[in-house]
Amino acid sequence: MKLEEAQKTAEEFVELIRPYCSKIEVCGSIRRKKDDVKDIDIVITLKNSHLPIGLIPGIIIVKKGKKLIELEYKRKQIDIYIATDENFEVLKMIRTGSANFNKMLCMKAIEKGWRLKFDMGLVNGYGNVIANTEEGILKNLLGDNVKPEDRR
Q: Which residues, at least 6 apart from 113, have a Cβ–Cβ distance to it below 8 Å?
């Protein structure tokens, strides 16, 4: 689908689930402002322990797990990634992508003797968290923050 169509669908969907979320961010190709979008990626933290997705009209659940819900809304694929307050920023960065950009970040971390973990952030060889925000991770690995639309 085209970016404008994907953005509109994402915005509508976000409004449907906003009452159940503490934090919510549209990621993936939409956040990177790609012309063509395959699916809609959304990262959330929940206000309560669950998202009553099956009770919201117009949603078809494809697969539901504790950390990922795959569904269809208005004939478009939406993947909801459920984060904690501690890993929301990390998951937002990783789900923004691109896959090649994420691989490059992982390689940069390894070169420094670190690891990039989706549930913790940037971790040194002793398991200590160096950074768990998007900006912190990018600055530690690349020396600067990189805007989503520049992540290839």
A: 124, 125
Q: Which two tokens stand for residue 60?
A: 């078809």
Q: Phi-psi bin for 99: left (phi > 0), alpha (psi -120 to 50), beta? A: alpha
Superfamily of segment(s) 3-82: Beta Polymerase, domain 2 (3.30.460.10)
Average of per-residue pLDDT values in the chain: 95
Q: Does position 109 have pLDDT exceeding 80, yes or no? A: yes
CATH of 89-150, one of 3.30.210, 3.40.50, 1.10.8, 3.30.1370: 3.30.210
Distance set, CA 134 to CA 8, 56, 139, 143 (Å): 25, 31, 9, 13
Residue type, 17: I
